[in-house]
Amino acid sequence: MNFIEELKWRGMIHDMMPGTEEQLKKEMTTAYVGIDPTADSLHIGHLVGVMMLKHLQECGHRPIVLLGGATGMIGDPSGKSQERNLLDEETLRRNQAGIKKQLAKFLDFDSKEPNAAILVNNYDWMSKFSFIDFIRDIGKHITVNYMMAKDSVKKRFNGEGDGMSFTEFSYQLVQGYDFMFLNQNYNCKLQMGGSDQWGNITTGTELIRRKTSGEAFALTCPLITKADGGKFGKTEKGNIWLDPEKTTPYDFYQFWLNCSDADSKKYIRIFTLYSKEEIEQMEKEHDEAPHLRILQKALAKDLTVRVHSQADYDAAVSASEILFGKGTAESLAALPENMFLSIFDGVPQTTVSRETLNAGIAIIDLLSDTTHMLASKGEARRELKANSIAVNKNKVADTCIINADNLINGKYILLQKGKKSYHIVKAE
Prior knowledge:
The protein is α/β, with parallel strands linked by helices and 428 residues long. The protein has helices spanning 3-9, 20-26, 47-58, 89-103, 123-126, 131-137, 144-148, 151-157, 166-169, 171-186, 198-212, 249-257, 261-271, 276-288, 294-307, 310-323, 329-333, 337-343, 354-359, 363-370, 377-385; strands at residues 15-16, 30-35, 62-67, 118-121, 188-194, 217-221, 234-235, 238-239, 349-352, 361-362, 389-391, 394-395, 401-402, 412-417, 421-427.
């Protein structure tokens, strides 16, 4: 496959330096994307760069992921108005381990082929550089005039935020040296990133040209936006993380499932490996019956299985059915605790002692006096007679006694009135 053509039809090219496509056609080319390891997990905002590397490897080229252990200690001014918190080495190493595990679900690091993916950390070479060596060997090749002309620098100098420290001003030099180091040690000829990285990336190509006369190229993808103008990957709870402890597989699945039609048409090209023909067929079917949400379902399945697992995807689908009234007692009981809490996030909860549950509570008392889910015992009796009350998805009668045997995950009982009214009893 032609890498550039693949990115073009997927809408993943914003800027490209002349000669880049010719270089990629000429030979197996090594390219890198930098990720600052500011957390021990990637979030979906990182996936654009990761997918660029995935397509690169699928096209027979060699991907390098550069974790910015050193640059993560500085903070990149691009697209930001405030200086970033600095991280210590122990934290950076822990973050690196978590990130590599996630990257391995997209990139093949263990291939015996020459294009096996590589993970490097710029702390490993930058930490050996003295300040004097750096400004003498690197700083003299790039003028302040050149650095000041970058948009990311000009914005901060023109009043965005609190100005810029020398630390952040030096960021593009450090990133430029990274490119030169990889160029010299790994024959890396291409750096890729988001469109806000163009200035930093071209500083690297300029440094390589001036200091080594080597070949170097740049390619950026558009910054991902939402059709409604909102920030991609952000919800009320914050970032959508790849780590299931930070974002449950259910919430991850729901994020993609709830994308708008316009966004889904864009995202399915960027974040999946479906072919052009497959996507066009799905779009045709989607447009004929938008209510079936064919694109959203395909997107949610592909990414949930890839990032988490088939079992997590199946559980997320099952959880969705539970929430919208199609689930069974068996599917509810099979839910992991974190997914149970995810789907019933925001549902009222009442804590009951285990001693009380062991003794047993009449369902009428539980609905009225204990949880106040219903206003009175009379209302509880009427709803029970109408067969509208379920405990853990099983309809119950007014003679039912609730006890510890009803606990899901040994901790919760789900009360339900009708299709959409829920209450959780938590045992402590």
